[in-house]
Fold:
Amino acid sequence: MYGNKEIKLVLEDGHEFKGFSFGAERSISGEVVFSTGMVGYPESLTDPSYKGQILVLTYPLIGNYGVPGKETENNLLKNFESDKIQVQALIISDYSFQHSHWNAKKSLAEWLKEENIPAIYGIDTRKLTKLLREKGAMLGKIIFNNEDVKFYDPNVVDLVKQVTVKEPTIYNEKPNQKKVVLVDCGAKNNIIRNLIKRDLTVIRVPYNYDFLTQPFDGLLISNGPGDPKICAQTIYNVGRAMKHNIPTFGICLGNQLLALAAGCDTYKLKYGHRSQNQPCTLVNTKRCFITTQNHGFAVDGKTLGEEWEEFFINANDGTNEGIKHKTKPFMSIQFHPESTPGPYDTEFLFEEFIKMLK
Structure:
């Protein structure tokens, strides 16, 4: 019977969780992480920052509004953050076999099977999440039909190389518009949408591309997966751009890459921040914003040079959520102002970036 085939998750510390398959029927491994968001699984599953990871959703009921169709606008898929599912596998508590939404074209299970992504329901995700919080994100493997696989650590490989655009792509090219180079480390589509709706020409380039060979007005370093220190060429290129005082804006992984280019250090968080309900405080104010986040590494704020200052701080654990230069047009944030999914509270930062271009 559909949805009644047993499948299990095995963690590297020996814990096992048994459930039932509702996705592709195959074994796979990756890093097990959790997100506390209530909705937004089409956007989350297609976020390239999840590359190499087995995603646990803590909200118990998933799939009740199905999956939208693949419509395009400005050569970008609407309702999705990339052109395919990026997670290794999906783990939830309870799957809704009946979905209902005006924009739904298929069920979540159908979509997962089409893209060959394993998925488990019937697992105690509360117990699993508590374990990940106590011990930290750890490697895991999905085992179907006793077909075992080796543990795979995505953080020791160049994940960005797997998700970056293969060649430069231009969006919204019009005469007399400001041009922004988007260094694609796994950029979410809504970053590009936000730039387009602000009448900017977007030149999307691979993460290791020498973008200084062409004229442009500003640089945006995107989100992406994995350890930022692996992106050595990107760090080098960003450092070169900073020497030319080119206005620069980093998002998520882009925050870490800008920090590394500025001589700061980064480190791996115990279990990361993933969801659309993360509170961040604007430094030197009492203003707190609810943000969308998806990262496992962070900037060590204590390593900032005298010319830099912290921009935002995570209100939960005090970790760095952004940096900016005291005198030059460089700033970055650890969260996602483009949301999708999540609140639009910090979308104003795109406006701040535009001001830097003038």
About this structure: DSSP finds eight helices and 24 strands in the chain. The radius of gyration is 20 Å. The mean pLDDT is 97.
